[in-house]
User: Fold DUF3108 domain-containing protein from Thiothrix eikelboomii.
Amino acid sequence: MFKQRPVLVIAGALSFTSLPALAAPLAFQATYSVANSGLTVGETQTSLSYQAAGYTFQKITKANGVAALISGDSLTERSVGLKQGDKLQTQQYLYQHKSRRKAKQDQYQFTSATEIKGKLDQTAYTLKVPKNTIDPALIELRLMEDVAANRPLNYSITERGKLKTYQFQRLGKETITTPLGQYACEKVKMTRDNGERQTTLWLAPELDYVAAQIQHNEKGNITEAQLTHYQAKH
Assistant:
């Protein structure tokens, strides 16, 4: 049976790219296969591109196989903003989830460095935020940079009209096998809701810290994504 929520959480944790320390990520394209309970249930395609001083980071996850027949599930996330030195900073964010049963959307823009205005489904909202707050998609590229540069892994993000703090823990090195081969990785994990939700990522230095594997454990229900394609765009 297709589990919608874990697949979408995995989608929100995908799309890592390559970069040297103290440099913005390279433009790239990547694909991940998503499985739940050992069965393939979806695929995520990601891309990062630059236009002058701006960037667009997009992730599209779709159910496939039997899961697609059951749910018709799809999720699009898009982060658009500015490249400021070695950092990317959100200006606009879109979260759009569609299935046969329901549709959800969160869309907002930064009106200043400390304020966002958006619409959650049909409800408008305004939220005051600290400087350097980012969107849930961009956190992935920030994490990529900071693991490579050995910086703290703490982030202020805003989603669903709320301000949240994400903190990742370094778990050391671990070698894993993926459809693209075997990689020695840096392992990091974020735990939420008193341990009931855990997201673990294996970042491969050989791939310039691209995430070779991502696992989400929600109350024992495990969904896993593995990298099946990666191409840096120079």
In short: The CA atoms of residues 170 and 188 lie 5 Å apart. The longest helix spans residues 138-149. The chain has one domain: 28-232.
